[in-house]
Design goal:
The chain is of the alpha+beta class. Helices cover about 45% and strands about 25% of the residues.
Length: about 675
C-alpha cells in the first residue's frame, strides 16, 4: 500500500498530539499531583507512538516509547514530578517536533537522540539527569540540523539567470552566516532581504522564505540574486546589517549550474540504488501489519465530518475568486450603461451569490490565533526561569480567527512583544515585593474582533514605561531634539521605543538590550496594513495593542477621482466625507487646515502629492475625505467621490516597492487600474 496517501494526515495529527503534550506538561508543572493530566499526556504519546510505528518511522516511535515509560512511572507514583524531570520531557518533545518537521519536508525523520534517551533512562531508574544549561537544548529553533547550502534550480529560474545575463545583469549566490549569539534570526533575515531587494531581484532562497521566517535553519542561508552591482558592493551593504558573521558572494552562470545539477543527479541515482538494496530486506510480516493498521486508520478518517485542505489549494481558489470579483465589477458597469432590466436583475443576483461565496472562501482561510498563541506558554516558562522571575501568562480569546496569510506573519512580532514585556516590563520578585505587588507578575495575551479588524493586546502589570528614561535615551541617540521633546505627549514619547536601534536596557543580555525587535515589530505590522500602539502608566504596567485587518486580499474602498485619474481609499481608514468651501480653509504653521468638529485637521491635496496633471480648474467647493491613524487625523482633498466598492488588492511588484503613499492597485469594472492610497503613510 502507498503510505504517502496517509502522510499529510500523519504529519497534521502528530503536530496536534505534540502541541497537546506541550500544553498539558505546562499544566502538570502547576499541578504536579494531578494524575488526570498525566493520563492525557500519556494518551497523546501512546497514539503518536502507534502512528509512527505504523508509518515505519522507528526512531520517532522509539523515542516516544522512552518518554511514555517515564510518564507511566509518574502515573504509577514511582517518579515524582519535578521541574528537572519536565525539562527532559520537554527536550524529548523538541526532538520529536524536529523529527516530524523533517518528515514534513520530505526527510526520513531520523535524528541523533541518544543524549535525551539516556536522560529519560536515568529518570526511569529514579536517578537525577544532568541538565546542560544551554540555550541550544531549550530553544526549538536551534534544534534544527545544520543545512547544506546548495540548491537545485528549476527550468524557470535557469531561464531567468540566462536572460538576465543577456540583458547585462549578473547572477550571484549570496551565502550569509549569522553570528552564533544572534537571537532574532528572522529579523536579521528580513533586514538582509530588504537590502537585497534594493540591489536587484531575489529569484531563490535556500532554505525557503517560509522556513527562514519561522527560523527553521541554523545560522546559514543562501540567496540567489540578479543585480547590476558588483559582488564587493553587495557584500559591503549586507555586512552593514548587524549580527552578520560573514557574507560570501559568488558569481554564477547558467553553464556552471547545469554542470553542478547533473553531478548532483548522478550522486542521487547512486544513493537510490544503494537504498533499494537496503529496502529489499523489509519482511512481509511488517508490510502486512502496516497494511492492516493503515486500513483501520483510513476507515476512521472516512467517518470524520471534516477534511484537511492544503493551504495552496485555498490560495488558488482565492486567486480565481479575485478574478471573479473583477469581472463582477465589469458586469455591474455594463448593466448600468445598457439600462436593461433583466440584465440588471441577473447581475444583482450574481452579486449577492458571489458576496456569499466570498464570505465562505474568506472563512475557509480563517485560522484561530490559537495556532500562534500555543507557542507562548512554553516560551514564557523558559524565559521566566532565565530571568529569575515569576510570571503567570493568561491567554484570552484564542479562538479569535484571522486570515492565514496574517497568521503566518504575526508570530515573530508577538514573540518580540512578549519577550519585551517579560524583560523590561515585569519586575523581579524582590522588587515587586518591595513595591507592595504580588511576587508573581501577570502577562495577559488577548485577542478580539472589532468591526473588520482583529485586535491583539499584550498587557503586563510591571514597571510601565518611564517617560524621562525614554526621552533621555532618545536625546542621547539623536532621535529627537530638546525642543521636540518638550512638546511631546506621553503617547508620542512611548512611540519612540519603536525607533530603530532604540533600547532602554542598561546592559545587553541574551533577551534584550541590542536595540532590535520593536522596530521590526512595527514594520511587520504596518506591512500587513495594521497599526501598533502603546498605553502605559509608570509603576502600574503597559498595554501594547495591535490592530490587524481580517484579510489582506479583498478590501472595501471609496473610489475617488483626481482630475482624470481614479484612486481607491480603504474604508477602514475613513471617518467621514465632507464638502468644504474654499473660504473655510485656514492656514496654521504653513499648513492648510480645516475645523472638523472642533479639531484642527490638516489638509493634503492628493493632486499635488501624486503630481497629477491638471486639466480642469478648481471649483469653489472641495471634496474632502477625513482619514485617521490612531489619534491622528488628516483631510484628503479630491475632485469628486465615485462611490464605495469591494476591490481586489494587487501588489505593484518588486520594481515599484518604494512608491510613496501607494499600497497597491486594483482593476476596476471598466478595465482601468486604480491605485490604492496608503493613508497611514500620508498621515505619518
Amino acid at each position: 500500500m502507498d503510505m504517502n496517501q496517509y502522510l499529510e494526515v500523519f504529519i497534521e495529527e502528530s503536530k496536534e498530539h505534540l502541541q497537546a503534550c506541550n500544553q498539558h506538561i505546562l499544566e502538570l508543572e502547576k499541578n504536579p499531583n494531578d494524575m488526570d493530566i498525566v493520563n492525557e499526556i500519556f494518551r497523546s504519546a501512546h497514539t503518536l507512538k502507534g502512528m509512527s510505528a505504523t508509518m515505519g518511522y522507528e526512531d520517532l516511535a522509539n523515542l516516544t516509547h522512552k518518554m511514555e515509560n517515564v510518564l507511566d512511572a509518574i502515573r504509577n507514583h514511582k517518579i515524582t514530578v519535578t521541574p528537572e524531570v519536565l525539562d527532559v520531557v520537554f527536550l524529548a518533545i523538541d526532538d520529536l517536533e524536529a523529527m516530524v518537521e523533517s518528515i514534513a519536508e520530505g526527510g526520513d525523520g531520523k535524528r541523533d537522540v541518544s543524549e535525551v534517551v539516556n536522560k529519560l533512562g536515568l529518570i526511569e531508574k529514579g536517578e537525577s539527569p544532568v541538565i546542560t544549561d544551554s540555550k541550544e537544548e531549550v530553544a526549538v529553533a536551534t534544534l534544527e540540523p545544520k543545512v547544506k547550502l546548495s540548491s537545485q534550480y528549476d527550468e524557470f529560474e535557469l531561464t531567468v539567470i540566462q536572460q538576465s545575463k543577456e540583458q547585462g545583469f549578473e547572477s550571484y549566490e549570496v551565502h550569509v552566516t549569522l553570528r552564533e549569539d544572534c537571537l532574532l534570526k528572522a529579523a536579521r533575515v528580513f533586514m538582509v532581504f530588504e537590502v537585497l531587494e534594493k540591489l536587484g531581484e531575489v529569484i531563490k532562497s535556500y532554505p525557503t522564505t517560509d522556513q527562514l521566517e519561522e527560523e527553521q535553519f541554523d545560522h546559514d542561508f543562501m540567496v540567489t540574486l540578479v543585480s547590476k552591482d558588483s559582488k564587493e558592493d553587495i557584500q559591503k551593504k549586507i555586512m552593514k546589517v548587524s549580527e552578520i558573521e560573514k557574507v560570501e558572494v559568488q558569481p554564477i552562470s547558467f553553464e556552471e549550474i547545469r554542470q553542478r545539477q547533473e553531478e548532483t543527479v548522478r550522486e542521487e541515482q547512486k544513493v537510490s540504488e544503494e537504498q533499494a538494496v537496503t529496502d529489499s530486506t523489509v519482511t512481509p510480516k511488517q508490510t502486512d501489519q502496516n497494511k492492516k493498521a493503515n486500513t483501520t486508520h483510513a476507515t476512521k478518517q472516512t467517518a470524520s465530518k471534516t477534511i484537511r485542505v492544503n493551504i495552496e489549494r485555498l490560495d488558488i481558489l482565492m486567486n480565481l475568486f479575485e478574478e471573479l470579483v473583477i469581472d463582477r465589477g465589469r458586469l455591474e458597469q455594463i448593466s448600468k450603461e445598457l439600462n436593461n432590466q433583466e440584465l440588471h436583475e441577473t447581475v444583482e443576483r450574481m452579486s449577492r451569490v458571489s458576496g456569499d461565496l466570498q464570505n465562505i472562501i474568506l472563512n475557509m482561510r480563517m485560522v484561530p490565533v490559537e495556532t500562534v498563541f500555543n507557542r507562548f506558554p512554553r516560551m514564557v516558562r523558559q524565559l521566566a526561569r532565565d530571568l529569575g522571575k515569576k510570571i503567570n501568562l493568561e491567554i484570552i480569546g484564542a479562538e479569535t480567527e484571522l486570515d492565514r496569510t496574517v497568521i503566518d506573519e504575526i508570530g515573530d512580532p508577538l514573540v518580540h512583544l512578549i519577550r519585551n514585556a517579560l524583560d523590561h516590563g515585569v519586575e523581579t520578585p524582590d522588587v515587586r515585593k518591595a513595591k507592595g505587588k504580588n511576587e508573581e507578575g501577570s502577562v495577559v495575551l488577548k485577542a478580539y474582533h472589532s468591526g473588520n479588524h482583529v485586535f491583539i493586546e499584550i498587557e503586563d502589570d510591571g514597571a510601565g514605561i518611564s517617560r524621562e528614561k525614554v526621552l533621555k535615551k532618545a536625546l542621547n541617540k539623536g532621535i529627537i531634539n530638546e525642543q521636540t521633546a518638550a512638546a511631546m505627549t506621553d503617547k508620542q514619547v512611548y512611540e519612540l521605543i519603536f525607533a530603530s536601534g532604540f533600547s532602554t536596557a542598561e546592559k545587553i543580555s541574551d533577551v534584550s538590550g541590542r536595540g532590535v525587535g520593536l522596530d521590526v515589530v512595527k514594520n511587520t505590522i504596518e506591512s500587513l496594513g495594521g497599526t501598533v500602539s502603546i498605553d502605559s502608566k509608570e509603576g502600574e504596567g503597559s498595554i501594547f495593542s495591535i490592530q490587524l485587518p481580517l484579510t489582506l486580499s479583498i478590501i472595501s474602498v471609496m473610489l475617488v477621482e483626481i482630475q482624470k485619474e481614479k484612486y481607491a481609499i480603504p474604508l477602514s481608514s475613513i471617518i467621514e466625507t465632507a464638502i468644504v468651501k474654499k473660504d473655510e480653509i485656514m492656514n496654521a504653521h504653513n499648513q492648510r487646515v480645516i475645523d472638523f468638529r472642533g479639531r484642527v485637521v490638516p489638509l493634503l491635496f492628493l493632486k499635488d502629492i501624486f503630481q497629477v496633471p491638471v486639466f480642469e480648474e478648481e471649483d469653489e467647493f472641495y471634496s474632502v475625505i477625513i482619514v485617521r491613524k490612531g489619534d491622528k487625523m488628516a483631510g484628503l482633498v479630491v475632485d469628486s467621490f465615485i462611490g464605495q466598492q469591494e476591490v481586489v488588492l494587487k501588489s505593484l511588484g518588486n520594481y515599484l516597492t518604494n512608491v510613496f503613499a501607494i499600497s497597491g492597485a486594483t482593476i476596476l469594472g471598466d478595465g482601468q487600474v486604480a491605485l490604492i492610497v496608503d493613508c497611514n503613510a500620508l498621515i505619518k
